[in-house]
Amino acid sequence: MQHVWKRHWSFRYGVAVTIFVLAAALRLFLEARYGAIPPYLTFYPATIIAAVVCGAGPGVFITVLSAAFEAICLLEPRGGFAIERPSDAIALVVFVVMGLLICAMAGALQRIKEREHRLIQRALRDSEDRYRLVITSVKDYAIFMLDPQGRVATWNASAQRIKGWTAEEAVGHDFSLLFPQEVAQAGRPLEVLRLAAAEGGFHEEAERVRKDGSRFWADVSITPLYDESGRLTGYANILRDISERKQATREMAESRSRLAGVVDSAMDAIITVDEDQRIVLFNAAAEAMFGCPAKQALGGPLGQFIPPRFREAHAGHVRGFAETGVTSRAMGKLGTLYGVRRSGKEFPIEASISQASVDGRKLFTVILRDITERKRADEHQSLLLSELVHRVKNTLSVVQSIAAQTRRSTAPEQFYDTFAGRLAALGAAHDLLTRSEWEGAWLADVIRIGLQPYAVSDVAERWTMDGPAIWLAPNEAVTLSLAFHELTTNAAKYGALSGVNGTIAIRWQVQPDGEPGELAIHWREHGGPVVVTPSRRGFGSRLLERAIAHELGGETQMHFDPAGAQCRFRIPLSPRIRRQP
Amino acid sequence: MNATPPDDRLAILVVDDETLIAMLLEDLLLDLDCTVVGPASTVAQSLALVENGGGTLDGALLDINLRGELVYPVADVLAARGVPFVFITGNAQHGIDPRYAAIPALAKPFSNDTISDVVESFRERRARVGG
């Protein structure tokens, strides 16, 4: 109810006059009933009440009115202002002074109350303004109230922004419209409120729907509200859209599992260690490479996989690397790195290291590749290269020798043909060896390549050969090729292949008497012109004799039978001339 | 291969596993008025020839690689006996035993002049040592 002293002045004066009239009436009533009573008896309280209730002005007015009424109407002689007795005068003065004092106090009191009221009002207004400002300006939080039945009571701007409904659309509706349909149908909204009321609050991360039907992940807090008497008045809801956070979490989980997939299927060993060189990651390739299950490696020192003599230096390198702040670099610039398997076996590796800082914790990741195979291949390649150089140089010397020998034993006009023929035989032997990657060649093939050009004649097969499989090492194959080339060339010039009817039979066998056995080859020409023993020995026979003796440790017998030339080789078997490859 | 070389001829051991190269060396040495001892194609043969040849060897041409066997045992014996020798190698880049770093290595293929220079150095050596 509004205070009287805040009303219009006429009302206040009206009330004051009423109080005065009541006081005067009471005064007259008391006097009539009890005779003389003390002056101003009823006017003191009237003045006080008027001053307090109606304010200082009406108080003064009543004081003056009361004094005048008492003095004029009640004191003897009545009907005129005549103060005859000093006690009357004193009473009048005391009353007026008291009245005025009361009015002054009432006025002061009123001013104090007014100021207090103003302050309270302003504070209240400020606080309300602030509250409203907070509620409306909270960006990420939908804040809304529900009544005890779960109907929306208030709805802030963020609620509208996050959920799509305006305050007008939402207020009054059951808040189950915020839930996905199937969840709402399962009775979740009521359950949520029940839980909030039972527990004094409720919190969950769950899906909610927007006005457009789209779903989003929300962080929801519901707090039940009670009045002073403990009656449930509603629920305060704070809801935040956490879709982005959920998405980020899911992406991180995805990226983590992708990374785990890469790490686990990597062909290279991947090991991560912390600042103390303790292993925190050890992938499948690392398990295979070091022969150590991850379970046993994790938490252990990296040093166990580094050969003891390198451990100290390695730790120093890693510290140095950490100080550079460079994120990654190849290791082993100063030489080959080695790892050591659980079995204690060392092996060469190629490695790169990277570092990352996580929450001030440094992690080093080393990617390792076992280069045992590659090193072996490299070594094999350089060996091959060196062998190739050796072979080429050797072959050049052989050619040099053939040229020199040919010049000695051949008339100048025949030099070119003879020399070219011998080079061709050398080339054919090389072709044969290339087919087996210079492992060696079969004796039958060596003989065949020399005789190939004479395979067929008009009448018959020109040559036959027969014998067990004999494998020749490269040098032996080349030497025998050249030897058979000489025999064939001679046969073509002077022997069985010079006519049309001649034939050659080549037979060989291994004679088992004695170890390791002996290869006997018999070259026999037949049907050619009558053979005469040559007057001087040429390169061919010299090569045959020398090669078989010197290089193969065997012996050669040439027999110039008039019916056809014969040649017998006897060569001891050895790992370089053997029955099986 | 003369059984008893005249005194003024140099007796030179030839070690090479390749017949044609051995023949070439043999011919070159004969042309240079030398007597060829060998040719040998293995370390064992070479050592036997050195033993039998006694102190009569005036020099040796040694192919380093004899079918995977290295000729150094022969070089050791020759060095011990004070017989001068040179190596013949198909691959000069491929290291020669550091102990013999001072010994010349002739790279295949070689020219006639190279061989005659080597023989000349053997002849001078004999003249100096044998007086």
Automatic annotation (TrEMBL), chain B:
The keyword Phosphoprotein applies. The modification 4-aspartylphosphate is found at D63. InterPro entries: CheY-like_superfamily, Sig_transdc_resp-reg_receiver. Residues 11-123 form the Response regulatory domain. SMART domains: REC. GO terms for biological process: phosphorelay signal transduction system. Keywords: Phosphoprotein. The keyword Phosphoprotein applies. This is Response regulatory domain-containing protein.
